[in-house]
Design brief:
This protein is an alpha+beta fold. It contains two helices and five strands, in the order E-E-E-E-E-H-H. It has helices at 50-62, 64-74, and strands at 3-7, 10-13, 23-28, 33-37, 43-47.
Length: 77
């Protein structure tokens, strides 16, 4: 699972052929993980520290089109 974006102690990634709806994973260096919807930026499952989640959401909001593009590339029909 390559990082799409990263920050200090966290990264945004996606899994090949993961389940819908379109989402990304925020994974921390301490192995916390949350699944976040690309559309709403709401947490679908898991948990990460609030400051990390806020930073990842900010990055995802700025690059939502790229995240959708990556999702489509990793989830062929």
């Amino acid at each position: 699972m390559p990082a799409i974006f990263s920050g200090p102690n966290w990264k945004i990634t996606m899994y090949f052929r993961d389940h819908p709806p379109p989402h990304f994973h925020v994974v921390t260096s301490s192995r916390e993980e949350a699944q976040v919807s690309i559309d709403s930026l709401s947490v679908m499952a898991g948990r990460v520290r609030p400051a990390i989640l806020a930073a990842a959401r900010d990055r995802a909001k700025m690059h939502a089109a790229l995240l959708y593009e990556k999702w489509i590339g990793l989830h062929p029909t």
